[in-house]
Amino acid sequence: MDGVSVLAGRFKIFDCEGYMGKKGLRFRLPLLALVIGIVSILIAACGSDPTATSVPATDAPVPTSPPQVVKVGTTVPLSGSLANWGDLVNVSMELAFERANSENWAPGFTFELVTEDHQGSAPVGISALRKLVTVDKVPVVSTIFTQIALAQVPVADDLGVVLVSSGVQHPDFGKLSQWTFRNASNSAHNADVLYRHVTENLGLENPRYAAIYHGGNDAVRILLERDKTLLATFGGEMVAEEAYIPEEKDFRSLLTKLKSANPDVVHLITLGTETALMLNQAAEIGLTPKYFMTITAEGAEVIKVAGSAAEGLIYASPAFNPENPDPELQDFLREYKARIGKDADGFAAAYYDGAKMIVEAVKRSGGASSQEIADGMRSILTFEGIGGDYTFDPATGDGWQSFQIKSVVDQQYKTVVPLIAPYDIAQ
Amino acid sequence: MATLEVQGVGKSFGGYTALEDIGLSLDAGSIMGVIGPNGAGKSTLINIISGFLKPDTGTVKINGKDITGKAPYRVFKSGIARTFQDSQVFGYMTGLENVMVSAPWGIGVQEYNVLARPFAVAREEKQKREEAMAHLAQVNITDKARSMAQALSYGQQKLLEFARMLNSRANVFLLDEPMAGIHPDLVDGLKALIVAMAKEHNKAVILVEHNLKVVMEMSDYVTVIRNSVLLSGTPDAVSKDERLAGAFLGVTDATA
Amino acid sequence: METLAQFLVNGFALGGVYALLSLGFGVIYNTVRIFHVLHGAVFITAGYITWVFVEHTGLPLYAAGIIGVAGATGAGMLIELGVYRPLRKKAAGFLTAFLASLAGMFFIEGFLVAVSSTDLKVLKQGPLSVFHLGDVVIAYFHIIIIVVVVLLFTAVTLFLRSTQWGRMIRAVASNPELALSVGINSNQVFLMVFALGSSLAGIAGIFRAYDVGLEPVVGLQLAIIASIGVIIGGIGSLPGAALGGLTLGLAQTLVAFLLSGQWSQPVAIIIMLAFIVFRPYGLLGTREHKELRRLL
Predict the structure, then answer these.
(1) Residue from B47, B101, B123 to probe the interface with C (highest C Cβ count within 10 Å)
(2) B197 assigned to some structural domain
(3) Which one of A105, A195, A196, C6 has the minimum C-beta count within 10 Å?
(4) Which chains neighbour B (Cβ–Cβ under 8 Å, 3 or more pairs)?
């Protein structure tokens, strides 16, 4: 009665006949092939970025010998849940290299971007890095997202390739290897400054202090340690530490628990959208201490989601000022908007500056091997970019970026302290 | 015009011919016994008439309407109800619901009426419930109206099947070995019920059995099949025919 | 003690949304026997449609919400017509259908990322309005969630118990071959079931989008929650499915209270495994002992 099961319709649970029978196999293989086919087309389509190759400039003065092409790799997310970040930073780097090529910033060298998708995943990030170095032979790679960058460090070490990040705020990223460099604000430094701002300027001495952090990542643990050091030095008590996982969106339990600890100050070591939800849910239960975070709240549109609950939030933001009339900055802002349809933020500017620093390093050492680029990078001690000023520790390659303290006031992002100079290593 | 008319029905599975040129016709109020040894194609015939299998050749008509190869639910709506060899009930529905479900008509079937005319639907429900209770009463299991069907004994489930068929508006009943597995004490009651279906409710009943004696007792007509029709006629004529013994020859478990 | 009461309130609000989602998943699974991972896609579809209308046309929330639920219902029916029905026609097995559903879920997730970025979509700005009951803070919206869940559960139960459609659905769930022979067109019933289950998921999706917002990845995550709710509630039992979802919400909240928020996801899996080992027929399930074993 083979007709009956077909007519009866519904799916059989582990229908052995279906699996072993010829009919079943004939049907399943093409379906499987189709699924695999579609998935691989999607991966391929997302992986190859048509905007990634830069156009060589035609009006560059031609040196005596043809310019040496320096391939600069980037590993960014072009697919997966972080996909929208990939283009945002790639366009910045492209703009920097196009300008470097046309204005001949490093005589005898032109620069070209080679992009690999890391899908927001550390294992993919590692293989993307390997591919860039072994297949595309790039001497230097720019990367984004702390988790992935940290996973890439040992590989960069093995391969002897320069790994630059303009986004990773991990306080020790530059110290991890002789090959790692960073032009981004340093979250530990930001935390010091913000802590002192909150305690001294807002009159919350010896605060009952709490931290909410997303679990797992090394950078977060370093920040927590830093908090404890600050409290030990300047006074105050850590009354609660609450961890969450980023997939979770209902923080009411966590916040209810936090409320019973009655903190004065809460350090949010959180990612953008969760921050807004937390502020909402905290306001609901009447948990209203001073909140601060060491990264910017603007990209995640915290006000849009949290509204009145965002009022008073204090955060560090790159000292990037789009009002600055500097022609290079204004050109960048215009071009960026034209290419991607969005306004550039401090993050995009930092990636422009990071690319510019690679050019500067090549120029300084007159060569484009990994070793020469690393030496060149190490020789840069201060750098004025369109995204702010940077200082670097020549011993480690670690960097600091100037930033400002901002706060949500009357439903707007307002600057509270306009410019905090980057940490001065000489002090 | 006969109520049920089967003409030239044939069906093979792969190279094996299960049925060949089967023809039979039946009027309301009469019982047709279909007998034959195991593997003779009796169940295949039931499955073809009820739409569970499509025949390779031939036609099935009810009241002159061709229903050959129609989906089982359409065949049912044309007026043919069936039972299965083992008793089949909706185990996680009550006895009453098992009966009521076989009336998929009325305004309640239009899903929007549930929202648009809830009171009319409720009235119809009440009426359907009463009808179903009446049919449960006919097979003497009103006390099982609120029990889950899976908790009933095999015999009670069998009776529930009959109540379900009576509740449907079908006028042809296909009974696939209704006596199989029934406790001997219940057999007489079941026989009386089947006869009553034909004689009192004026249904055309096809009774597939391998128990020759039962069939001969109950049927108005008997058709002997072994892949094709060997014999047909009144029980008397068939039982006297010497070809009857031949039909079961070579079949080890013949119960003749 | 007040804190514990606060947790219970939070847990009921979270569990209410889960219960609705599990109820929808259960209605579909019990009848069609398909591990409908795309339920998660239906869930977010409602939220996204509502968000688009609120954000771009300025429609009031309730009107956009009705469009969102209608969209989810349509999406569910389209999935049945475009994915599952063709597969059934080819006599595909349970696993094939599951893989197709999973692939579809990834496709929708990728599609949403591509067209609307990964930003959280929240249907409101700012915190919910609340009232105080002693020291316990209760959001009016959470009361609405709980009331709506109770009403919908009652309505679905009544529909399944005392309408011809309900009986037809339960008949197909109980014995699909027999259902055919009593005049029930199973394809039609399946379509109805997808419409019913998907509208429940749609309502849950809008609740979620209003309460804590939606992002593309949440679809798969909540499809898993819905299926766990059905398993711990007892496969085959709709009150079980609702209770299972509620239990998960309470458990996640309670674990965050006792241990840490990091445990809220793992605890769902741990509870499911505990049920599979010690009580495979779930809280209210009766028959599905065997079936669960076969399923796993």
Answers:
(1) B101
(2) yes
(3) A196
(4) A, C
Structural domain total, chain C? 1
CA distance C214 to C116: 12
CB contact under 8 A, C262 and A82: no
Cα-only R_g, chain B = 19
Confirm whether B98 is domain-assigned.
no
Q: Is the CB of A11 less than 8 angstroms away from the CB of C34?
A: yes
**What's the complex ipTM?**
0.87
Q: How far apart are CA C100 and CA C111, in angstroms?
A: 16
Cβ-proximal residues to A237 (8 Å cutoff; 6+ apart), any chain = A206, A207, A208, A209, A231
CATH value at residue C196: 1.10.3470
DSSP-derived secondary structure letter, C80: I
Task: Please work out, in degrees rounded to the nearest 5, the angle formed at the alpha carbon of residue C30 by the alpha carbons of C25 and C32.
Answer: 90
Domain-located, residue B117: no
Q: In terms of CA atoms, which chain A residue is nearest residue B52?
A: A4
Give the orientation angle of helix A146-159 with respect to helix A218-234, to 10 degrees: 110
- Higher-scoring residue by pLDDT: B162, B109: B162
φ, ψ for residue A79, nearest 5 deg: -135, 175
User: Which neighbouring-strand residues pair with B17?
Assistant: B12
Least confident of A210-219, B41-50, B156-165: A210-219
Contact C72, C43 (CB under 8 A): yes
Residue of C194, C195, C221, C227 lying closest to C109 (CA atoms): C221
Do strands A68-76 and A388-392 pair parallel, antiparallel, or not at all (unpaired)?
unpaired
| Tokens (6 digits) for A246 | 């980023």
Domain count, chain B: 1
List b or e across A83-122, with b for residues whose CB sees 16 or more CB atoms inside 10 angstroms: bbbbbbbbbbbbbbbbbbbeebbbebbbbbbbbbbbbbbe
Residue B239 falls inside a structural domain: yes
| Residue A78: DSSP 8-state | S
Burial tier of A23 (Cβ tally within 10 Å: 0-12, 13-18, 19+): middle
Structural domain harbouring B185: 4-90+154-247
- What are the two backbone dihedrals, phi and then psi, of residue A75, each rounded to the nearest 5 degrees? -115, 115
Decide if A3 and B53 are in contact by the 8 Å CB cutoff: yes
User: In whole angstroms, what is the distance from residue C210 CA to residue C51 CA?
Assistant: 9
At C189, give phi and psi (nearest 5°).
Answer: -65, -40
Distance from the Cα of B14 to chain A's closest Cα (Å) equals 12
Instruction: Quote the pLDDT of residue C294.
Output: 42
Selection from C197, C147, C144 nearest residue C169 by Cα: C197
Which among A324, A349, A318, A347 has a CA at the least distance from the CA of A420?
A318
Q: The domain that contains B234 carries what CATH number?
A: 3.40.50.300
Tens digits of per-residue pLDDT, C209-223? 999 888 888 889 899
